[in-house]
Amino acid sequence: MRNHFKKSFIILAISLSVVLAACSGESTEQQLHNHLEEAVSLEEGFEQQQGEITELEKQEQELYKQIIDLSEDELDQIQEISQQAIDTVDQRSKKIEAEKESIDASQEEFNQVSDLIEDLEEEETKAKAEEMYDVMDNRYTAYNDLYNAYTESLELERELYTMLQEEDLEQEALTDHINTINESYQQVLEANEQFNEYTVEYNALKQEFYELAGIDVEYEENSSGDEGESEVEDSAEEDEDEETSE
Question: Does residue 147 register a pLDDT over 90?
C-alpha cells in the first residue's frame, strides 16, 4: 500500500479586482464576466473541503502505520484501529460529496454563459469565448472522472480495513487488495493530472478573452506566487484540480 497519496489541486484566480469601461447598462461582455467570476466564487467551498480531506488522509495514514506495526497476536488492537480508519474514510466521503456540490453549483452557473456567447458581436472575441467554454466544459467532465475514481478508491479502503479485522485473513488476499488500491489511486493521479491541465488552459483562455473583450482585470498573486492560480493539497477553486489520498 502506498505510504502516501497526495492530492493536489490548482486553484484559479481567487481574488480579482475588475474595472469595466463605463457604459450604459450591462454589456454582454460584462454579463459574461459576472457569470464567470460567480462560478469561481461558488468553488470556494472546494478549497475548504480539500484542506480538511488532506488532514483526514494524514490521520488515516498514521492509523495504517500503527496497524502494520502490530502482530497477529494483537488482533484486538488491530480491530480497534481499523475501525478508526474506517471512520476517517467515512468522513472523507462526506467531504468529497460537499466538494462535488460546490463544483456542480459552479458548473450550473458557468453554463449560463452559453447563450451570452452567441450574442457577442466581435468574431475574434466570440471565437475565444467558445474555446474557453469548451475547455471549461472539459474541466468539469475531468472533475467527474476524478470524483468517480476517488470515491471508488475510498470504497476499496473501507474494504481493506474491514479485512484487517478478520481473524483468518490470508496474506495473499490482503496483498491482492492492497495492489488493487494502488492501481485505483494511480487512476486518481491520472485523472487529477488531466483536471489540472484543463484548469491551467482555461485560466489562460479566460485571461485572453477578457483582454479581447476590453475587460481590465488585475490578478492578485496568491501565496504560491503564480499569477491567477495557486496549488493546494486536495482543493480547488475557480478552476480547481482534485486529488489523491492515501
Answer: yes
